[in-house]
Amino acid sequence: MSASLYTTRRIKNVVAMVLSVIATGLGLFFLAWILWETLSQGASALKPQLFTKITAYREEGGLANAMIGSLILNFLGILIATPIGVAAGTWLAEYSRRSRLGPAIRFLNDILLSAPSIVLGLFVYTIVVLPSKYLSNGNVTFSGIAGGIALALIALPVIVRTTDEMLRLVPGTLREAALSLGVPQWKLTTQILIRSARSGIVTGVLLALARISGETAPLLFTAFGNTFTSLNPLTPMASLPQIIYEYTKDPSPDINTIAWAGAFVLTMFVLALSLIARFAFRSKVSHD
Hints:
Its main location: membrane. The chain is an all-alpha fold. It has helices at about 5-40, 50, 65-95, 100-115, 115-130, 145-170, 170-180, 185-195, 200-215, 215-220, 240-250, 255-285. The longest helix has about 40 residues, at about 5-40.
């Protein structure tokens, strides 16, 4: 290798490393800025009552009902999306290789992955919330179930894509070895392949959960909100993003401070989920 070519490659490598460090630094800077801004603006509201009182008490209240509602809605969304997403991703990875339907489904899944959440919320409002008036004497009934379905539609393409990619990363020699021993395809898929890729699949589920935790728009048309604590998914249900959205528009400075505190709690929750997901995936890669 000539000295000039070596020098050119070394310069390109240094430039790439510098740009990468700058990009990383910018990302960490804005992350720290967001955390500091939400913490500084909402620090005075980060009290025990934020986690114990409900929003019905306004300035003297907290966000307990919104936090409980968000946990229920997110659980419903993941509960609906996970089995469907894992099954669809498994079919794409293992059974659609010789089918023209596979690429078409992957393309449609990518479209759903980039679809605006407000559009999905309106879709669920049309097919779930509006028809409820025929069952409730002409009154439209918002519900936690409708909110869970809307969140499931957002989480579904993430889980499908992750499951598909994780199963395709499993070495083909593992499949060949199992099939040569006479293992049926369904048993190979459920007991060997999915077990091998389970860490990656769980990572995808956690990332999907982090993705839906901060969604506001679809919940405005489905779960709608509730100033009291509701554990019944058939009734309107409060959620942390929806309460933050409403409180930021309130003229009261105390209410705005509670909104900032809720934003900080939500940000830390999403950040924790993202870190857990990345740690789980890194542990899987290191183990492999």
